[in-house]
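Q: Okay, next protein. This is Type II toxin-antitoxin system HicB family antitoxin from Candidatus Abyssobacteria bacterium SURF_17. I've checked the sequence twice, so it should be correct. Can you predict the 3D structure?
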Amino acid sequence: MRKQYQYTVLFEPTEEGRYTVTVPALPGLVTEGMTLEEARAMAVEAIQCHLESLRKDGEPIPEDVKIDLEPVKEKVSVPLGAA
């Protein structure tokens, strides 16, 4: 029997109508899908490939990151000096 892992996955809609997918417990893992359903499937595939790569390299499989707080969305003004 294969071991099952569970990870928190974030789906961010894009202006083009796609979904960008990130996994906080697996920094650098990013994928996307045309629909939310496709993005979910892409997330599973990307996580599986990432974990298989870690296992192959003898690296530990990370635990999920608990996210208790909702993300905050706001605009920030950034001054830029003369070139």
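A: Here is a summary of the prediction. The beta strands are 10-13, 19-22, 30-33. The chain has one helix and three strands.
Q: Noted. On to the next one.
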